Amino acid sequence: MDSPQLIDLNKYPGLTWHEDFIVHLASIVRPRVYVELGIHHCAVFNRIIPYAEELIGVDINPEAGKYMLVSHKTRFVHAMTQDFVQKLMTESLMIDMLFIDADNVREALLKDFSTYLPFIAPHGLILLHDVHPGNEELIQPAWCGTAYQAAEELSRHSDEYEMMTIPVFPGLAICRKRQVQLSWQEPKNNKQAIKKRYSIVCICQIYNELIKGNLERFTNYVKPLADALVVYDDGSTDGSYEYMLTQTPYVIRGHKNDFVNERSHKQLLLQEALKLSPDFILWLDADEVLTANASEHLQTLCAACIENNNDGVVFHELNLWRSHTWRRTDSLYDVGWFVRLWRVTPGMGYEETQPGLHQRSYPSSVQRLQWTDSVQVLHYGFSSQQRLAHKYLVYQSHGQSGYDMLDRLISEEQLVLEKVPRELFPEGLWIDDEKPVPFTWEESLSYVEEYRAEVFEP
Questions:
Q1: HSE on the CB side for 23, CA within 13 Å?
Q2: Are residues 151 and 235 both part of a single domain?
Q3: Distances from the Cα of 25 to the Cα of 7, 28, 32, 34, 348, angstroms
Q4: For residue 109, pLDDT beyond 70
Q5: What does the DSSP 8-state code read for residue 365?
Q6: Confidence tier at 2 by pLDDT (50, 70, 90)
Q7: Is residue 195 part of a domain?
Q8: Left, alpha or beta for 123 (phi > 0: left; psi -120 to 50: alpha)?
Q9: For the chain, percent helix, then strand, then coil, each to nearest 5?
Q10: Residue 92 pLDDT more than 90?
């Protein structure tokens, strides 16, 4: 006869499905603070470490802490669940995901739920285990106990939270704390108002940018926005590499120009940037700067990214055309939205780094995106005949052809220009110049040829 204190795993297959479910949920939600009441052997706790910023495990058994993986993120608290909640009152800590698995008795579970609820962040999750025993035999203290009664009682309330139970033995209830349906419409409280400054590392790939007049503008206006600047020089021959060494200690030197391997270069850049332990990565090219007041807006965007559990922010690109203040809007020049700000997450990187042009510029780990127009990108890559000629000849040399992939870089037969408002320019970059007069196709080809020797100089 089976012991009443043990569960026959052959009789009840899939008993631990909830562990995989909770880990997968954490990988989607990415909680800033994860708390688990009753960690036992840390079967769930340790697997969530890659997906949370801070993890606290509470258990009455001092031996439980020995199973916790040591990390700067993790903390073991040897205490009763109600004793630890008293400590929370002295900490400015809001919990984004709470797993209650300490006691399967109705009264204890209800008490844990009610006392921890005030410390759950708006739209934070509370998970309750053992709330759907498979049959009457399993409603025993050693198995599921009376936890299901607590879930049943809690589900009758809906003012502060919503709750549902996955009806598969042993059961898992998921509760979301909320006042309104949409997280971004949730009223802020004082604890949420506590601001953190997020560290940002900017990465950039360069090739002969000094001769094009890009580097001084880039370093003057982009360096102040970031905590560090990491650069990959793709074999420059015009002094760009030497110039950047005067601006940042983090310069990777390519031995030869290898334009088609830009994705593998980005992987090298990302690896070097991650050594500096940033919260976010900002990707810009040397012929780009951000619009005015970017410093203030970047921190706000970082905070919103964390709050909404997003991985990246998408910026609009304003393509200046043969001028300092006129942007082109026809021929796909106004549809450029690029993922410029990346939230640093565990395992961040590119899945593939094969050669090729026009591949996805951001890491595969960046999946959940948000869009913004509070910060835009001023792109100077088309702002002069020289820069246009460089782009045209380089892309042509790599086999690009046709209007969309090549000719639109210099064709002005459909040219539509729009004046960029002065207030979008950082101080010192506004130059009120005349609207460019369209070139014929022959005139465009003519000025391109003037720069051929400069572009292909050994």
A1: 14
A2: no
A3: 26, 5, 13, 12, 18
A4: yes
A5: T
A6: very low
A7: no
A8: left
A9: 30, 20, 45
A10: no
Tell which of 135, 160, 185 closes a domain: 185
What CATH code is carried by the domain that includes residue 80? 3.40.50.150
Element holding 294 (H helix, E strand):
helix 294-307
Q: Which domain holds residue 343?
A: 200-455
Say what the pLDDT of residue 329 is: 96
Quote the CA–CA distance of 175 and 125 in Å, as a whole number: 5
Query: 36: Cβ–Cβ under 8 A, 6 or more apart, which residues?
Result: 44, 45, 55, 56, 57, 58, 98, 99, 101
- For residues 429 and 217, is the Cβ–Cβ distance under 8 A? yes
State whether residue 260 is helix, strand or coil: helix
Classify residue 9: in a domain, yes or no.
Answer: no
The rounded distance, in Å, linking the Cα atoms of 4 and 237 is 78
Q: Which amino acid type is present at position 111?
A: K
Res 191 pLDDT > 60: no
- Examine the fold and report which residue of 185, 208, 241 is the final residue of a domain before the chain moves on: 185
Neighbours of 385 (CB within 10 A): 18
CA–chain centroid gap for 430, Å, is 32
Same structural domain for residues 286 and 395?
Answer: yes
Residue 424 φ/ψ region, left for φ over 0, alpha for ψ in the -120 to 50 degree band, beta for the rest: alpha
The whole-angstrom separation of Cα 312 and Cα 167 is: 35
Diameter of the chain measured on Cα atoms: 94
| Residue 281 CB-half CA count within 13 A | 30
Number of residues assigned to the chain: 458
> Is residue 10 predicted with pLDDT exceeding 70?
no
Rounded CA-CA distance 267/273 in Å is 10
Per-residue pLDDT tens digits for 365-408: 898 999 998 999 999 999 999 999 988 998 898 788 888 888 98
Helix axes 81-88, 106-116, angle to 10 degrees: 10
pLDDT tier at 136, thresholds 50, 70, 90? low
Question: How much is the pTM?
Answer: 0.60
Q: Which of 400, 375, 199, 407 is nearest to 301 (CA)?
A: 375
Q: Answer yes or no: is 49 within a domain.
A: yes
Identify whether the C-beta of residue 448 lies closer than 8 Å to the C-beta of residue 392: yes
Residue 192 forms part of a structural domain: no
209 and 268 belong to one structural domain: yes
Question: Distance between CA atoms of 237 and 256, rounded to whole angstroms?
Answer: 9
Cis-peptide, bond into residue 170, ω within 30° of zero: yes
